[in-house]
Amino acid sequence: MVRINENYAKLPGSYLFSAIAKKVADFKEKHPGEQVISLGIGDVTKPLAPAIIEALHKAVDEMSAAETFHGYAPDLGYEFLRSAIAQNDYKDRGCDISADEIFVSDGAKCDSGNIQEIFALDNKIAVCDPVYPVYVDTNVMAGRTGAYNAEKENFDGVIYMPCTKENGFVPELPSEKPDIIYLCFPNNPTGSAITKSQLQEWVDYANKVGAVIIYDAAYEAYISQEEIPHSIYECEGARGCAIELRSFSKNAGFTGVRLGFTVVPKDLKCGEVSLHSLWARRHGTKYNGAPYIIQRAGEAVYSPEGKAQLKEQVAGYMENARAIYDGLKDAGYQVFGGLNAPYIWLRTPDGMTSWEFFDSLLARAHVVGTPGSGFGSCGEGYFRLTAFGTKENTLEALARIRRM
Ligand SMILES: *Cc1c(COP(=O)(O)O)cnc(C)c1O
Questions:
Q1: Does ligand 1 come within 6 angstroms of the Cβ of 251?
Q2: Which of 256, 274, 303 is the last residue of a domain?
Q3: Range of the domain at 357
Q4: For the segment 57-112, what is each residue's pLDDT rounded down to a tens digit?
């Protein structure tokens, strides 16, 4: 008889965003006339830029003629996209990464979940606390962790690295030695960034202890400060210890279109085995990687028009971030992030728990945010607001919070 993967049963019952959706639905049912504004879920709202729409139309038309039709995409992705990435995201920033080290995919979420499959089950993972939930959840499902510890609100067998106000939400090197280290900067949910010298310490540490860093740079387009690296490969020695995840979701509005990529340098080895050759065997190569049409849309992200249009989009979101940051600070809140990321991380007032503040915000301001505790135990007492709303909604939500 068929049996389930018991590891899936280790995950706690309620997923953060479904718990939020339920509370919001209950509120709307009881208060049908009220306009609820969401500064909660990390999804973009601006339409695709004209340069991208144009590329999509053109690629669709190509599919209608036998001479320009495209079937299965090549394994790593189309050369036109991989070389645009290698040039713009890496060579132009002084990083030694070539097109054949880039694996195009249908998004960073899938890659961040799937990448753990190339590593043995007895590797120990280290994650930031709080953290984007995908890294831990996929390791739980694979069986790389112990059981869920309800009291500590985390999983046994995982090294959690506290990210607190005291360390500027950038973790210290762990005292227990990990094998796989997940880092995400600029960070979701705290909005914090890591400087190049801080990141260099992590690279040196990983090389010293023989660990691999999985570096999620989904928010690199939001970096505004000079000293913040856009890629881990800006650090010396990173080719020998780091995998980088990137996405077109937050910089170009592809959350529904789906496109991302993962960089696995050819120098990256585990003993004699090249991780590049292992990742080349991943499931989801040409079959559910990104379609031709979407890869052409991705190429347009790097065209001069595309770059200018997307710079403007990102700047628009960052104006929201600035407004929330300044407005809440002015109202007496302790606020963090918002400078190199579209996320504002705030301390809940009056010693409220994250969920108490969620309820209060919904009831009194009709604004939805995300309780920090949903991202890990160190997120308790914090709250995340996102800058992805429209300008109008963001300013209205801010005004309501300030009136609370
Ligand atoms: C949004 C996000 C991603 C992007 O995921 P996609 O699957 O490319 O949409 C990756 N990492 C983090 C931390 C994110 O917040």
A1: no
A2: 303
A3: 6-47+305-403
A4: 999 999 999 999 999 899 899 999 999 999 999 999 999 999 999 999 999 999 99
**Measured from the CB, is residue 246 less than 6 Å from ligand 1?**
no
Cβ of 188 closer than 6 Å to ligand 1, yes or no, is yes
313 CA to centre of ligand 1 in angstroms: 17
User: Do 108 and 156 fall within a single domain?
Assistant: yes
pLDDT digits (tens, 9 = 90+) for 324-370: 999 999 999 999 999 999 999 999 999 999 999 999 999 999 999 99
359's enclosing H/E stretch is helix 354-365
Dist. CA 57–CA 67, nearest whole Å: 17
**CATH number of the domain residue 184 falls in:** 3.40.640.10
Residue 178 lies in a domain: yes
Break the chain down into helix, strand, coil percent, rounded to 5. 45, 15, 40
Q: Is 250 in the pocket of ligand 1 (CB under 6 A)?
A: yes
- Looking at the structure, tell me whether residues 106 and 248 fall in a common domain: yes
1 located within any domain: no
Task: Give CA–CA dist 298/254, Å, rounded.
Answer: 9
Count up the domains in the chain and report the number: 2
Contact between residue 194 and residue 201 where contact means Cβ atoms under 8 Å apart: no
Q: What's the whole-model pTM score?
A: 0.97
- H-type alpha helices, 86-209: 108-114, 134-142, 196-209
Please tell me whether residues 230 and 368 are part of one structural domain: no
Q: Answer whether 218 contacts ligand 1 (Cβ < 6 A).
A: yes
Are residues 34 and 93 located together in one domain of the fold? no
Query: 37-38 and 367-368: which strand pairing?
Result: parallel
Looking at the fold, whether 11 and 59 belong to one and the same domain comes out as no
Task: Indicate whether 276 belongs to any domain.
Answer: yes
C-beta of residue 374 within 8 angstroms of C-beta of residue 256? no
Residue 104 near residue 83 (C-beta atoms within 8 A):
no
Task: Using most ligand atoms within 8 A of CB, pick from 111, 115, 135, 188 the residue to mutate for ligand 1.
Answer: 188
- Of the residues 257, 284, 303, the one at which a domain ends: 303
